[in-house]
Amino acid sequence: MTPITNRAFLTYTYGNNAPVVEVSSNLATAEVPDTLSVEKISIGNYYRPDGSVVYLITITNNSDSDINITKLEDDLGKSVEFDNQIGNPLHKRLKFIEGTALISVNNENFVPIENFNFNDENGNLIFIDKKIEIIPSGSSIKILFETKVTNKADVEIGSTITNKTTAYNGPKSIGDYEDIITVDDFADVKIFKFITPENITSSKDIIYNFTMLNYGNVLAKDVVLTDTFESNAISEIVSVKVDGTNIESCVSGICTLKSDVGPCYNYDASSRKLDIRGITIPAATFVKNNITEKVTTTPGNTSVIVNAKL
Coil, helix or strand for 106? Predict the structure, then answer.
């Protein structure tokens, strides 16, 4: 949009000896639509590693004549910092998911887009369709497509992906738009359980090892670990350790503590159910390779060891 602002002035006088008076009007404003407007939005405000981001591109012809678009180019979230370094390959934060590109003309139903390719010299996504080539006056088109977040996207809190779409008439850019999406603040926890020894005799204790890994960029707190043991497998809990430190059984037999107080556990012998509450699992750390720009994730790690008697 091109803004227009205007203020009017007038002068007047009154009486025989009155001075000339000048007054001004209010500031009047209006906007003239650009000849071609390109709007791009992501469906959703956040992204996650290996997640998907759906984009909607809207192109509107506000002029009095048809507009020809020879190419519609999407840069798939390239990294300007690394693209400009000699010898480094192109780095894309996003990967197009084939078969997801749809097009709509004047808000009609979406249909599969006719053609696209990745063959330009910058590795960008190129949309080509007869519905794009000529946009009549007053018409609009919408393009919907889905992308997958690659391992080149930053994951630390506050990181963003900037994705730019540009429309061309021959070699000339006739409109572009950027969308910026922010990484989600999230915890992503996986748990693994091991029993030692694997061959158990009645004279030995049994040890349960739990490893909890957090692949997210924020810590997981108030974690509750629950395990119900096999019938007659456990006679008593000898000790429970979190990250090598012994923790106490919950006072009154009910675990209600949270992470800011510290972990505790409760074992109900009648149901053979063990509850460990108030666990904290730290956030992952992320390291980016300065050459490949690949982000390597080292998950946050918390271990729980339960020593029990058969």
Answer: coil
The 3-class SS string of 115-174 reads EEECCCCCCCEEEECHHHHEECCCCEEEEEEEEEECCCCCCCCCCEEEEEEEEEECCEEE
Asked whether 129 and 111 are in contact (CB, 8 A), the reply is no
Give tens-digit pLDDT for 177-208: 899 999 999 999 999 999 887 766 655 788 99
The distance from CA 45 to its chain's CA centroid, rounded to whole angstroms, is 7
Residue with tokens 């271990």: 303
Q: d(Cα 126, Cα 146) in Å, to the nearest integer?
A: 14
Q: How far apart are CA 44 and CA 184, in angstroms?
A: 11
Overall pTM surpassing 0.85 (yes/no): no
pLDDT in tens, 6-55: 888 888 777 777 788 788 877 877 665 557 788 899 988 899 999 999 99
If phi > 0 it is left, if psi is from -120 to 50 it is alpha, else beta; for residue 170 that is: left
d(CA 233, CA 171): 75
Asked if the peptide bond before residue 197 counts as cis, ω within 30 degrees of 0, the response is: yes
| Residue 11 near residue 20, CB atoms below 8 Å | yes
φ, ψ for residue 73 (rounded to 5)? -115, 135
What are φ and ψ of residue 155, in 5° steps? -120, -15
